[in-house]
Amino acid sequence: MAQVNQEDRSAADVFDPFAQDFLRDPYPHYHKLRAHSPTFFHPQLNAWLISGYRELDDLLRSNNLGRGDEMRFFGNFAEGGGVDRVSVDWIFYKDPPDHTRLRRIFAQAFTPRRVESLRTYTRDVVDSLLDNLEHDNDFIRVVADQLPVKIICRMLGVPETLHEEAKVRSSALVPLLDPLISDAQLEAAEAASSWFLELFGQIVEQKALQPGHDLISALLEAEADGERLTRAEIIGNVVFLFAAGHETTTSTIGSTLVALLRNPGQLQLLLQEPGLAVGAIAESVRWDSPVQYVGRLVTKDFTYEGVEFLAGQRIMGMIGAANRDPRQFPDPDRYVITRDEGKSIAFGSGIHFCMGAALARMEAEITLDRVFTQYPRISLLSEPVQGDRFAMRSYSTLEVEIR
Q1: Which helix (H) or strand (E) segment is 66 a member of?
Q2: Does pTM top 0.85 for this prediction?
Q3: CATH placement of domain 1-66+292-345
Q4: Which helix (H) or strand (E) holds 74?
């Protein structure tokens, strides 16, 4: 039997992501971690765990942290080592000045106006998907998992005949963002990456010759300070949009529905005041954050509130824990759609704030409106089933009863 040293055992007493009930309900574990210390070095995970709201917000905005090349090698918790990830130039992995340049050019094309232009199409798609609940009561499979892919495919000009395969391939990419990844998942992710790179390589070539009203055409034309994206940068980061945007939006939609159905008083308030939908979504991603943690690398030695961070050390920003910090959100385990204590960190903070946040919120807002319009007496048919990922929290099954 392997020996477990006292230091690792003590750290596991403070925070153990391998605990049997952790994936089902991590929040009691986060409360214990944060109460011990909002900045805690975990030797077994070989990382600083930042679980306090103020501390995480400060550090995500700090110039002392970055992504760095090492962020392509997230530690594998189960083995204590690392696994090589598919090598793609995702903006997710970039630091300034590369990140600044990519973000500035992307902002020229991925605009609020472009998101809003999809509102009518999104409504039509949601209505069509909701009709399928008459034959299949799994809301995730029928609605929440389908909608984000259809919208991003529409935005990028992917042929409708490829939407289903794009959904499957997109799901295979998601484990790349998680510290728990098996060899089989890595192999599937590599195959999915190759498929997407070939697909978007072809679309980019087509749009370069015949521009349309899609995002890829806009990215080909976008420039900032006289600079444009290379085709490789466009292709790689469009793949990232699929990987990051699909599951997080699915999670946002699913968790919002569950939160409202489990809190009938808040649901009734929303039905009386539909304008509170924005608040309901904001509270949902705080209460059960789609992204539970983000990784950073300490780029130079610095001290923060008496804690010394050394260059090369890893940071795990515990978003799920920070969003339940009682110092920021009174009575944080309650779901309250009228909260006004400030923004959560569900979509990140600092320079890496999620570019697709507005799109995810729009899709969730429309889905909420259409669900309760079409099925005002919808209810949970069984206990929702949580997925098995650490970094990305979402329901794998959500059976509902429509009446």
Answers
A1: strand 65-66
A2: yes
A3: 3.30.43.20
A4: none
CA 198/CA 105 separation, integer angstroms = 23
What is the rounded distance in angstroms from the CA atom of residue 196 to the CA atom of residue 194? 6
CA distance 401 to 403: 7
For residue 77, give both structure tokens. 């918790």
Amino acid 67 reads: R
Task: Please state, in angstroms and rounded to a whole number, the distance separating the CA atoms of residues 130 and 253.
Answer: 13
Q: Which amino acid does the sequence have at 171?
A: S
What ranges in 37-138 are assigned the alpha helix state H? 53-60, 98-109, 112-116, 119-131
Q: pLDDT in tens for each of the 403 residues of the chain? A: 333 344 555 888 999 988 889 999 999 999 999 999 999 999 988 999 999 999 999 999 999 999 765 444 344 444 333 334 444 567 777 888 888 888 899 889 999 999 999 999 999 999 999 999 999 999 999 999 999 999 999 999 999 899 989 988 888 887 776 767 778 888 888 898 889 999 999 999 999 999 999 999 999 999 888 889 999 899 988 888 887 778 889 999 999 999 999 999 999 999 999 999 999 999 999 999 999 998 899 999 999 999 999 999 999 999 999 999 999 999 999 999 999 877 899 998 888 888 889 999 999 999 999 999 999 999 999 999 998 888 889 999 999 999 7
Backbone angles phi, psi at 373, to 5 degrees: -80, -45
Q: How far apart are the first and last CA of the chain?
A: 55
Looking at the DSSP assignment, which residues form a beta bridge with residue 39?
A: 50
3-class secondary-structure state, position 296? strand
- Which one, of 39, 51, 46, lies nearest residue 7 by Cα? 46
The superfamily (CATH) of domain 85-286+347-401 is Cytochrome P450 (1.10.630.10)
| Alpha carbons 164 and 247: distance in angstroms, whole number | 15
Q: How far is CA 26 from CA 21, 52, 282, 318, 324, in A?
A: 7, 15, 20, 11, 11
Cβ distance 240 to 92 under 8 Å? yes
- Domain boundaries of the chain, sorted by first residue: 1-66+292-345, 85-286+347-401
Strand partners, 90: none
* Alpha carbon separation from 266 to 13, 126, 275, 362 (Å, rounded): 36, 23, 13, 20
- Taking the C-alpha atoms of residue 215 and residue 221, their distance in angstroms, rounded to an integer, is 10
